[in-house]
Design brief:
Elements (H helix, E strand, L loop, with lengths): L1 H11 L8 E5 L4 H17 L2 E8 L5 H17 L2 E6 L2 H8 L3 H20 L2 E3 L4 H14 L12 E2 L2 E2 L7 H11 L15 H16 L3 H33 L11 H14 L6 H13 L2 E5 L3 E6 L2 E6 L14 E3 L3 E4 L5 E8 H10 L7 E3 L6 E4 L6 E2 L8 E2 H7 L4 H4 L4 E4 L2 E5 L3 E2 L11 E6 L14
Parallel strand pairs: 1-2, 1-4, 2-3, 4-6
Antiparallel strand pairs: 5-6, 7-8, 8-9, 10-14, 11-12, 12-20, 13-20, 14-17, 15-16, 17-18, 18-19
Length: about 475
């Protein structure tokens, strides 16, 4: 029964705590009505605070207005606060260049997140085990990794899915027993949508072979979720280890290709890139060859050359003329944010605090300077003719030669922050301090530039 499965899901995945607040996404369909009705049955027992949100996508005209009116009346009868939003999804989808389904989903979650933040609540959506099975098949048809077989997660951040162990038949049975009326979206029967074709055509054929196919796919999704969690945890540990050791060039040289694949995905996600399985496979081929490039979604490119990995963003033609050339800002202790978004905090300290800082973090040396040697200083970006004498190295080098030797990706070189003092480069982000500005035994005050630029260059160009 739905009641037992919902309680099991809430307990198993720690979805709701007594005294908590929940915002329910209410479409007016069977799934969301059953969810809201069930949570209302728990309301007194668990002392829950509840609200429901309905979004009219302005796609179905009078039918959509009918659903909104029904949802409001349904909440009124249950004594639940009702919030109605109208969003022109067709116009937004056209503006963003994305499909109606994707745009509608983004709009719904944006609205739900807004209300949840306002009320300090968790978001409950009415996704079922049947929905999760359809998602697995959708990803499988497109070609996916283990991650794509996870289906719909029971919990994702503040989003909970109490119906995730219930099949659609459980929902219909609950509505029948509880006397719950609900609206039916006419687009649910349109085979213009890929997910509808899976639900209306593919799953019925699969049920002929196995009547319990939805439960079987659910077990597959649960196994994939556990496997993926373990693999990602191992990959995260590897990423942290390599970044701390400053050896990203070897990051992808794993004995196990499956771990390299996870690393590629983690790096892309950190940069808010959403690669499909075909992109990940192509990147793995580049790693196998030791060179190559792959075009990624969002005008991004993965490049591998000279054992250096980089994710680079390509500016669209309309902004290709964008340049930070000529940018500079006067130096002063405190926070500095460059036009390219790097955040630097400049701290002045005595030698005692400097030694304590070095004891806790060996990497601070390259970001510390003799403060009393700083004069008429500015932060800026690279300029033609720049040269730099890095502390501990012999002689000055042009920045072009230095960047080549340190394998800084070309797309990053123009946005590395530089501290110039008295006409000389005193410090370069990600490179270090100049010989003539390094901390010595006679230094009285130390300037520490706290700038974690590993997500920008990471010495071997892992990130841009």
């Amino acid at each position: 029964m739905l009641e037992d499965k919902c309680r099991d899901a809430i307990r198993r995945y720690s979805m709701i705590s007594p005294g908590g607040s929940v915002v329910v996404g209410l479409s007016g369909g069977a799934d969301s009505c059953a969810l809201l009705h069930f949570l209302c049955a728990l309301r007194d027992e668990w002392e829950l605070r509840m609200a429901a949100v309905h979004v009219n996508h302005l796609i179905r005209g009078e039918e959509a207005e009918r659903d909104a009116a029904f949802a409001e009346a349904f909440c009124r009868n249950l004594g639940v606060d009702f919030l109605l939003y109208r969003r022109d999804v067709p116009a937004l989808a056209k503006e963003k260049g994305i499909g109606l389904e994707q745009c509608g989903r983004e709009v719904r979650y944006a609205v739900l997140s807004k209300e949840a933040d306002r009320l300090g609540a968790r978001i409950a959506t009415a996704h079922t085990l049947s929905d999760s099975a359809e998602t697995v098949l959708f990803h499988l048809i497109r070609g996916c990794s283990v991650s794509g077989l996870k289906g719909i997660p029971p919990v994702r951040g503040s989003i909970i899915r109490p119906l995730i162990l219930c099949e659609r038949a459980d929902v219909e049975d609950y509505c029948r027993r509880a006397g719950i009326a609900y609206m039916t979206d006419s687009t649910n029967f349109s085979t213009d949508y890929a997910r509808n074709r899976i639900r209306l055509r593919i799953l019925p054929l699969m049920r002929e072979m196995n009547p319990s196919v939805v439960s079987a796919i659910g077990r597959l999704a649960e196994s994939a979720r556990l496997d993926d969690e373990y693999l990602n945890a191992e990959a995260e540990r590897a990423v942290k280890q390599y970044l701390e050791e400053g050896n990203p060039a070897g990051l992808f040289q794993c004995d196990q290709p499956v771990l390299s694949r996870a690393l590629v995905r983690i790096c892309a996600v950190r940069l808010r890139i959403c690669p499909e399985q075909k992109h990940i496979s192509a990147m793995m081929e580049c790693i196998g060859r030791g060179e190559g490039s792959v075009n990624l979604p969002g005008n991004n490119v993965f490049r591998l050359r000279n054992h250096s990995v980089a994710f680079e963003r390509i500016l669209p033609a309309s902004t290709s003329g964008l340049s930070y050339e000529g940018w500079e800002t006067p130096f002063c202790p405190g926070e500095i944010i460059t036009p390219a978004g790097q955040r630097m905090i400049c701290q002045v300290m005595d030698k005692k605090n400097y030694h304590l800082l070095c004891k806790n973090d060996r990497n601070v040396f390259k970001n510390c300077l003799d403060y009393d040697k700083i004069m008429n200083a500015v932060f800026r970006f690279r300029r033609e003719g720049d040269s730099f004498h890095q502390a501990g190295r012999n002689g000055s080098k042009s920045l072009k030669k230095l960047f080549n030797e340190t394998k800084i990706p070309p797309g990053v070189r123009s946005i590395l922050p530089i501290l110039e003092s008295g006409g000389c480069i005193a410090w370069i982000g990600g490179i270090g301090t100049a010989e003539s500005f390094k901390v010595t035994g006679t230094t009285k005050r130390v300037l520490y530039i706290n700038a974690d630029l590993r997500d920008i260059i990471n010495r071997g160009g892992l990130f841009q």
